[in-house]
Amino acid sequence: MSAVLSMLAVVVGVGVASADDSPPKRDESATNLAYMRLGAGNGIHTRQGIGGGPLLGAGYRAEVRDWGVDIGASLTIPSSERNVAFTNARFALQGMRFMTPRQVNSIYYGGGPAVGVGGGIGVDATGVIGYEFARDTPLRMFAQLDAVLPLRAYEPIDSASPDGYMAYFGMSFGVAYRANSRFL
User: Fold this and answer.
1) Is residue 75 part of a domain?
2) Which value, in Å, is the radius of gyration of the alpha carbons in the chain?
3) How, if at all, do strands 139-150 and 121-133 pair?
4) Can you give the pLDDT at residue 166?
5) Per-residue confidence (pLDDT) for residue 52, from 0 to 100
6) What's the CA gap between 176 and 184, in Å, rounded?
7) Could you give the CA distance from residue 9 to residue 170 in angstroms, rounded to a whole number?
8) Is residue 98 part of a domain?
9) CATH number at residue 38
10) pTM score, two decimals?
11) Which of 7, 22, 83, 180 gets the highest tally of CB atoms within 10 A of its CB?
12) Cβ–Cβ under 8 Å, residues 57 and 36
């Protein structure tokens, strides 16, 4: 009988150990986040080449399980007078999908429409891929890559700037605060 109890204890002990080794899970309820991000943005113009500068962004994100909606704005500021044509501001609405939504860290991707101001005002198609850290805390961090393809021709800002087509790419790091929780 004691041999059976010993074997049962070993089986139960292994089961408990394997349950403790599983990665941490996060709450699956809806999450609202306000965020700010900072990085670098670059434009690639068909005739002027590559230019860009610092990228600043802010927005709001709502997440439910593995889906999210992001409403945000970003501004790329030229790093020199030569790059004035690469100034770009954007207001975007993006759908997002988290690859491992129940985990503390997750890769995400998505895209959607945007209104771009830079080389004229018009509609843009946006895409994003990123990695979010510490999803189980009120203060999260993320790193993301953005791609923007304007669905319009570039309009020169003066007679010296050639017309053409310009796509934008950005890399940024951000901090998000979970608005529906208490910080302390």
Assistant:
1) yes
2) 23
3) antiparallel
4) 74
5) 76
6) 15
7) 55
8) yes
9) 2.40.160.20
10) 0.75
11) 83
12) yes
